[in-house]
């Protein structure tokens, strides 16, 4: 079972590095200005003014307030992940409602080039939450309908982020290259760094890796450093960085905090701590119901914990909302596990059909995600073809591991050995690699 800069939320088993969403997606937030009151400028969360300190010394999980003789027992409160009572953000209904109103208003004048960027930003923001591929495709179409020479700097940044989301990295980098220095320089650098992570250009990130465990007074930079620590197999320092990021958050926008808790949950799930991962996904869903990435991972945890009825109900909701074939395939697996073979086969066929449609429309974006599906479906040759195409596009360690798995499944032992050596050469140790490192497909001399 990724993002780190994947277009579609990936399942934890084959997760790639998840980079900090979005210094430049926050440019999109600045463009859409969805109507919620902010405690800071709209393109970044408010932070404390003092230099960052270690995370607050409160127990991980929950604490209890002892009841008095005249009061009922107080509900358990969570500080990591922080709950919605301890840190209030805008109601999800209001937040999504404002976003929808923004989209409706802008859609009425979508042919106005000066509104195209704002509409694309709003559509892509809705995609990031609700996971509807059609929103992302429409966002891209809106901006591509405007001659690039007519896009201003912020609009070009939004387009670069969307293009990289579709794994059109070369086009995204070309846009970034021609942006002038100035107010947008930091956002441009952040997108470029995200692309470096996605493409596996780890030498360019040496300075980032060197300071990954150090504190910094920046929400998204802390999340980025945590992602790099996960790539190195260092869960405890990564968790400290994620927690430091939470301690800085002072905004009323629910999305960044729900995203942060989901990233922490994904890290825990990748390392096999299912119960704690579930806690973080549940916190994200509590803060932002309908957030597809968290909803599906929560269903995944419920499945792994044997809570099949809960998982089934959640999968049905998130599949209806997104049409994501990975989620459909996961429900098929659940039904097969619980002995509902007819239902499992029906869901599997639906996942295959959806992949066929998406691979035809967006092959670069969905090839990675389809590889595991075809391996598990017994179509190893199809999986290997997709893994090869993905590897031509991306050199991150996740893609190298995926090629090794596909080659092994297809009986292409020499290619599996080559991919294994490539993954080893990165010097990284994400949890997926720690499982594979001792299983070299290379023959002993």
Brief digest:
Helix content is 62%, strand content 2%. It is built from 21 helices and 2 strands.
Task: Give a description of the structure.
This protein has helices spanning 25-32, 92-107, 113-130, 133-144, 153-165, 169-177, 185-199, 206-210, 219-231, 235-248, 254-270, 274-287, 292-304, 308-322, 325-337, 341-361, 363-376, 380-393, 397-409, 413-425, 431-436; strands at residues 61-63, 77-80. With 445 residues, the chain is mostly helical. It has 21 helices and 2 strands. Residues 1-11 and 13-71 have low confidence and may be disordered. The relative contact order is 0.12. Helix 9 (219-231) packs antiparallel against helix 10 (235-248) and helix 17 (363-376) crosses helix 19. A two-stranded antiparallel sheet has the order 1-2. It has a domain at 1-48 and 77-306: Alpha Horseshoe (Serine Threonine Protein Phosphatase 5, Tetratricopeptide repeat), CATH 1.25.40.
Name the structural class.
mainly alpha
Give the number of DSSP strands.
2
Mean pLDDT: 86
CATH architecture of one domain: Alpha Horseshoe
Name the poorly predicted regions. Answer: 1-11, 13-71
- Listing every helix as H and every strand as E from the N terminus to the C terminus, the arrangement reads HEEHHHHHHHHHHHHHHHHHHHH
Radius of gyration: 22 Å
Number of helices: 21
Helix content: 55-70%
Strand line-up of the largest beta sheet: 1-2
Could you describe the largest sheet, including whether it forms a barrel? 2 strands, antiparallel
CATH topology of one domain: Serine Threonine Protein Phosphatase 5, Tetratricopeptide repeat
Shape: globular
The CATH class of one domain: Mainly Alpha
């Amino acid at each position: 079972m990724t993002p780190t800069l994947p277009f579609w939320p990936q399942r934890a088993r084959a997760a790639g590095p998840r980079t900090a969403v979005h210094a430049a997606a926050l440019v999109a937030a600045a463009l859409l200005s969805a109507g919620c009151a902010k405690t800071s400028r709209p393109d970044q969360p408010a932070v404390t003014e003092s230099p960052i300190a270690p995370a607050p010394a409160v127990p991980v999980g929950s604490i209890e307030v002892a009841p008095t003789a005249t009061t009922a027992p107080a509900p358990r409160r969570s500080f990591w992940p922080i709950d919605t009572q301890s840190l209030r953000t805008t109601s999800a209904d209001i937040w999504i409602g404002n976003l929808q109103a923004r989209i409706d208003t802008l859609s009425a004048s979508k042919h106005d080039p000066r509104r195209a960027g704002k509409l694309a930003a709003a559509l892509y923001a809705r995609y990031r939450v609700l996971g509807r591929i059609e929103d992302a495709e429409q966002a891209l179409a809106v901006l591509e309908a405007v001659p690039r020479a007519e896009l201003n700097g912020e609009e070009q940044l939004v387009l670069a982020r969307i293009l990289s989301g579709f794994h059109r990295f070369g086009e995204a980098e070309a846009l970034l290259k021609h942006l002038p220095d100035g107010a947008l320089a930091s956002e441009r650098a952040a997108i470029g760094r995200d692309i470096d992570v996605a493409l596996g250009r780890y030498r360019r990130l040496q300075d980032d890796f060197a300071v990954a465990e150090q504190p910094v007074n920046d929400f998204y930079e802390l999340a980025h450093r945590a992602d790099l620590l996960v790539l190195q197999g260092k869960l405890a320092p990564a968790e400290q960085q994620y927690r430091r990021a939470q301690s800085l958050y002072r905004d009323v926008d629910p999305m960044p905090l729900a995203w942060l808790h989901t990233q922490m949950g994904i890290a825990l799930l990748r390392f096999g701590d299912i119960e704690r991962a579930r806690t973080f996904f549940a916190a994200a869903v509590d803060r932002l119901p309908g957030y597809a990435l968290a909803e599906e991972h929560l269903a995944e945890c419920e499945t792994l914990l044997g809570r099949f009825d809960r998982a089934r109900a959640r999968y049905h909701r998130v599949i209806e909302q997104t049409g994501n074939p990975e989620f459909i395939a996961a429900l098929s697996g659940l039904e097969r596990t619980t002995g509902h073979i007819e239902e499992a086969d029906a869901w599997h066929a639906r996942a295959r059909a959806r992949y066929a449609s998406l691979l035809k429309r967006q092959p670069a974006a969905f090839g990675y995600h389809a590889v595991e599906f075809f391996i598990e479906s017994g179509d190893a040759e199809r999986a290997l073809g997709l893994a090869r195409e993905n590897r031509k596009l991306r050199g991150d360690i996740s893609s190298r591991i995926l090629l090794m798995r596909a080659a092994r499944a297809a009986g292409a032992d020499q290619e599996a050995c080559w991919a294994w050596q490539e993954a080893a050469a990165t010097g990284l140790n994400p949890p997926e690699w720690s499982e594979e490192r001792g299983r070299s497909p290379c023959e002993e001399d």
